[in-house]
Here is the input.
Amino acid sequence: MARATTKPKKEISMEEALWKSADKLRGAIEPAEYKHVVLSLFFLKFASDKFVKCREKIIKTHGEKYADMKPFYTQENVFYLPEESRWSYIIENAKQDDIALKIDTALFTIEKNNPALKGALPDNYYSRLHFDTAKLASLLDEINRINTEDEENDIIGRVYEYFLSKFALAEGKGKGEFYTPKCIVNLIAEMLEPYDGILYDPCCGSGGMFVQSIKFVEAHSGNKKNVSIYGQEYTNTTFKLAKMNLAIRGISANLGEMAANTFTNDQHKDLKADYIMANPPFNQKEWRAENELVDDPRWRGYEVPPTSNANYGWILNIVSKLSQNGVAGFLLANGALSDDGTELKIRQQLIENHLVEAIIILPRNLFYTTDISVTLWILNKNKKARVVEQNGQLKRYRNREDEILFMDLRQMGSPYEKKYIELTEEDRAKVTAVYHNWQQEGFEQTYENVPEFCYSASFDEVKEKGFTLVPSRYIEFINRDENIDFDTKMKALQSELKDLLVQEEKSKADLLSVFKELGYEIEL
Here is the structure.
């Protein structure tokens, strides 16, 4: 019998392949399980494709006899896969009655041989699913067509978020908490420049912030070994995803002993991070009980964040983790900019403590799971004047303690995957240039306030406006209606409307004429 080929018949887009994969699973399992089934298979293919690529390189460089020597793979941050764990073996046996067992064995073997994956891969999962061999074989065929060469993206995170959005699963509704779009992570990384030190994410989801941050460091000739990664994730499934996502890319990380709630079971209590990047769940309600965490050291010097909304709980958790010169970039729903009551008191204290450096409104439709506009906050523990060497370059920061930079990016962005928006490389370059110029000496020549885009506000201005951080309260917006000549405008509209009505009458007459000629005259 001819052996099955592992070469895809025709490569298709990831989204198309995922949708077709979901079609293969309909009726066999619950929609909530789709993502788990597809993700593990996708992981197998991803790991195997990297293995094959590395194997070919080893053979070309050192010869065939070194092709199965594990250390050669380890030094390339690639998993060595024994034959029974390789995608080619799975595809060749796709139509066998025991294919589910073979998939489980492949996943078990990979986890057993790679400590970084401990607890990340499913145990005897496919054997317990009980859907027929033909469906599983058909699913494998679809997965086989996905191109895994896209190393620029957090693919594991995208796959997960895709299923959450398509099937509106309760765990992902409206939160945007599993996958942060690459363009936003890149924007945060380009503003924070996490080249050297400790990088922390208190709600790391599938690890996308870490994946893209390391890509940023490598793209700018930095050394990823200079970055120590710490994170925490509440959902066990997503915790496993993060371990899978980072391990497959050779990124070392301390995600704590287990999946755990950052507020009630902080896995990194004494951590002080140089960089913090986060996309917390938006507007979490009842995140703590009324009398819970009231004396938590993370709120020391501030009001206790209210039980009704966790936004300021996340902010103060982040502040408590910043090192002496630490800087943080994180996303929040826009409401946090102007909340009253306890949140206002905390916000005022943050501003008075010179921690808020920049507030940036982002465009709508950036996320798979929500279309709202959100805010990027930049906090900086040290806004004083200082000179720093960063990735081989000197940065001469000026004193910005009594200033906050406001930016509005809602007029930026380009269409992406039809209904989504992404910030292009040019967009991000413009934003980061403004931010870095504003931070440094000589900003008088390199930075200027631009209507409808950016404004540098003084502490006194912010105080005068009641410590609101809504950018539109500071950035100048042009009233394009005030200089319009009403009479001229109305006459132009009158002329346009007349032309339209004349054209409509002509079209109507032509249509009536056609029907009359056909013998079906229409009388009005």
